[in-house]
Specification:
Number of strands: 2
Order of helices and strands: HHHHEEH
Helix content: 40-55%
Distance between the termini: 22 Å
């Protein structure tokens, strides 16, 4: 069965992995610091619950195909995926404050994301999204960035 934040055990796994992160975690790829990653994931959840603006984006492949490959195929997301400018660290993303504050904020926003009943309807790369698809995306996005820091 595919992992999703809609399943309590999968959500607990993600929360545990965030809790296990340390301020000195070293990235395995990309340019974000661990604090930047926490802010990026937090910003992303905030977009989906409507607390941050969503900017349109274009991919070289059709949105439906991108969504199918990303949410349904049994594979890990590859490194260095494109990020919207309003969520990118050093551009429009929220800058880190302190590790403890950033981690606490992403865990609080994760709770809000999982409890929200009015998620936005369009992903900039995937197009139309159901609540179940957002919960799958929420798991995969967190997993991708936690793997970035070996968590």
């Amino acid at each position: 069965m595919a992992k999703t934040l809609a399943h309590a055990q999968d959500r607990t796994e993600i929360e545990r992995r965030f809790a296990a992160l340390t301020a000195d975690a070293v990235r395995r790829w990309g340019t974000m610091s661990v604090g930047g990653m926490l802010c990026h994931v937090d910003d992303s959840y905030q977009v989906v619950i409507g607390d941050r603006p969503l900017l349109p984006a274009k991919l070289a492949i059709p949105k439906g195909m991108a969504k199918f490959v990303s949410l349904r195929l049994p594979m890990r997301w590859p490194r260095n995926l494109p990020t919207g400018e309003n969520l990118r660290q050093g551009c429009g993303g929220t800058p880190p404050v302190t590790f403890a504050e950033d981690r606490a904020r992403v865990l609080k926003t994760l709770d809000r994301f999982c409890a929200c009943t009015t998620l936005i309807q369009e992903h900039p790369f995937f197009g139309s999204m159901t609540a179940a698809e957002w919960m799958r995306w929420g798991y995969l996005h967190a997993d991708h960035h936690l793997r970035q820091f070996s968590a």
